[in-house]
Amino acid sequence: MTLSARPLRLSTTEGGFDAALAARLHWSADTDAGIEKVVADIIADVRSRGDAAVLEYTNRFDRLAATSLRELELGQAEMKAAFEGLPARQREALENAARRVRSYHEAQKKASGESWSYRDADGTLLGQKVTPVDRVGIYVPGGKAAYPSSVLMNAIPAQVAGVAEIIMVVPHPGAQNALLLAAAWLAGATRAFTIGGAQAVAALAYGTETVPRVDKVTGPGNAYVASAKRRVFGQVGIDMIAGPSEILVLADGTTPADWVAMDLFSQAEHDELAQSILLCPDAAYIDEVQRAIDRMLPEMPRAGIIATSLTNRGALIRTRSMEEACEISNRVAPEHLEIASADPHRWEPLLRHAGAIFLGAYTSESLGDYCAGPNHVLPTSTTARFSSPLGVYDFQKRSSLIEVSQAGAQVLGVIAAELAYGEGLQAHARAAELRLKR
Amino acid sequence: MTLSARPLRLSTTEGGFDAALAARLHWSADTDAGIEKVVADIIADVRSRGDAAVLEYTNRFDRLAATSLRELELGQAEMKAAFEGLPARQREALENAARRVRSYHEAQKKASGESWSYRDADGTLLGQKVTPVDRVGIYVPGGKAAYPSSVLMNAIPAQVAGVAEIIMVVPHPGAQNALLLAAAWLAGATRAFTIGGAQAVAALAYGTETVPRVDKVTGPGNAYVASAKRRVFGQVGIDMIAGPSEILVLADGTTPADWVAMDLFSQAEHDELAQSILLCPDAAYIDEVQRAIDRMLPEMPRAGIIATSLTNRGALIRTRSMEEACEISNRVAPEHLEIASADPHRWEPLLRHAGAIFLGAYTSESLGDYCAGPNHVLPTSTTARFSSPLGVYDFQKRSSLIEVSQAGAQVLGVIAAELAYGEGLQAHARAAELRLKR
């Protein structure tokens, strides 16, 4: 087997660059009408028949032969045993990763997730109270591959936020993975079920006899899961709709080329639709990265996926300057953004849209994926233009606090009444006026 | 015309209370298949034909005869003239309200919307950078009624967040309302168009020749707007899907009954589906509120809407205690929650789910609606279980920052590699291992 990985070569000085880049970036998040119909039917069925429907779909799609949903519940003892049975190195790595992820999210809660209030001059109290969501559902993919690290990344911020009940769902065969069960135990999943797909999302959103109804569903999944999350949004909260994973590397040519090539691989190995892009002003360095790709590809166990992903969706782009590279990066709004530069803090302020920014040669994306601390659930497909990494804030909500004093009501009442009459809402105006002294 | 407003009387001590409450709360947010189809077609049409499609739908649905989309753009001069032409009292009220709303949202940004970072023991930098969304679209309803205050509540947090371009859309005839145009000028709308419905949402989400593509769409609208927002979610960010407005009043019997009755009216006058609920342990006080309702109803210009809303969806509920009233309030998770009590700070800590909490007899909801400072765009239909008032945070997004030192890479690389091999992602492991010293 001779594989080759040939990312598209582009240069910003060529005519037609913008169109060529747009074509390479294009990934349609459009929903498929067939999938939409199937998902709508599954959700309606789970709403009306509960456990029985979830059981039927699970047996059919995951090829199981369970006789009740209770059989599909994973017990705490089972998760704990999985944790205790891990080889020591794996258990320590998992504990270290969990500790770092927890510590980062505790800092995040402190920085932006605490209640606050103040009193203004007339004694009016204004503020915002921050409270955890009561019960959340965490969707963990488990069909094609098992991602224990995703269990940590979903459950730990929920736990740090103070969520009382964390319900995990993971389809067969992911639920057989010891590292995944160990992660669930370590991260504090309250209950766990071996169910997946739209039927699992519906069970969480509406509740069944066995699966408790949650207030929010987070975590990535396939097209059925994405469609189901979109459909139950409003009934419950959701985090985001995930697309294929992406990396964009800004390189000034000072990072070893094989490090950068391996970082592109680490994105590409996820799946054929994953996207890896290199932006660099130095053509010779780009050639060097391509040679490193050629040299290292045959050694990679997932070489086939990497080759397809890089060739069909990858790009090595020569820019006029690092400044121009930063501009293009803002247009791409990548999920993962590496600044492979000797002077990363020079470029970071120019970068407006990205899920996570990895500064300097030593910060490989994979360190962030597993254990640096920040979350690895990140906005994809340019949605970093308007959305954020999964965080403690996703498991909290805010309530405004207002306490108007008698004195304050005299001032505010006049303003409110004037505007309420202007909108034709007389009861609003009268409610304010009743509080005025006569 | 003899109208009567008879909210449902319930008591928590009666059998069947839970079911009766659930039935009264029931409001289906389910999407209508007919509306969904129409909206899907409109969006597809706007994507493919741009301006021409938006123009056609606008002329048809809003009964206009515009010949180009440029005709439907409202200029800055027009908005400024509207502001300057307001009666002095109205202009001052608007300015005062805007000033207070701005000041609150500035405090909000300071409390939870600033970038942060720290270095851990091995020199690794971890943090989060907070940046504004580049361009947002604000949907302002204008079909049945015009709400200038909603313009302030959407545009000011965007401005405080640092959003560079704020594009307002408001259907005819709302665009004729001087107070609304004045509010748009005061709150810093960059551009404004007289368009509405699904066609306006599609124009903002995908862009047309005339309407710029935005990154996020906020603001309430009718069922078509809600369906369109749900459908474009992912292509752009959205705030929330709004249902009918609600108030829940917790009363210990110390607030004048006519104040409470008028507060229930001020919710009910919005529309027939609005919901007003009173929870109180004192039966005599509940009777007093009903008498105040009977006495004041005939004076209200919107008496018909109020009577329908209170009779069909309102409830006066006698509870065993204030503690029980707080528990029920958490089940309702109301948009607006008034604590009409002499000791509101005793009850506030018991209240977990609410859009905004109004403490004490003087804090009528209408003060919060117009000018106290906090946002009046709030989660409805129990979504306060998982979502928050519109805020500065809705117009910002976060990027994780990670900078691992050479020393840090030696520690993190070992952990990441162990977990990556465990997940079968060898390129992830190799990328970490390449950074290890040999």
Briefly summarize what is shown.
Chains A, B: This is Histidinol dehydrogenase. Chain A is α/β, with parallel strands linked by helices.
Text of the CATH class of the largest domain in chain A: Alpha Beta
Instruction: Report the biggest beta sheet of chain A as strand number plus sense, adding barrel if it closes.
Output: 6 strands, parallel
Q: DSSP strand (E) fraction of chain A?
A: 15-25%
Strand order of the largest sheet of chain A: 1-12-11-10-13-14
Question: Unreliable segments of chain A (pLDDT under 50, ≥5 consecutive)?
Answer: none
CATH superfamily of the largest domain in chain A: Nitrogenase molybdenum iron protein domain
Q: Determine the most extensive contact between two protein chains.
A: A-B, 128 and 129 residues
CATH topology of the largest domain in chain A: Rossmann fold
Task: Count every helix of chain A, treating DSSP H or I runs of 4 or more residues as helices.
Answer: 17
Q: How would you describe the shape of chain A?
A: globular
Structural class of the secondary elements of chain A?
Answer: alpha/beta
In CATH, the architecture of the largest domain in chain A is 3-Layer(aba) Sandwich
List the domain count of chain A as a whole number.
3
Distance between the termini of chain A: 91 Å
Oligomerization state of this entry? homodimer
- Total strand segments of chain A: 15
Radius of gyration of chain A: 25 Å
What share of the residues of chain A lie within helices?
Answer: 40-55%
Keywords (chains A, B): Amino-acid biosynthesis, Histidine biosynthesis, Metal-binding, NAD, Oxidoreductase, Zinc
InterPro entries (chains A, B): Ald_DH/histidinol_DH, Histidinol_DH_CS, Histidinol_DH_monofunct, Hstdl_DH
EC number (chains A, B): 1.1.1.23
Active site (chains A, B): 335-336
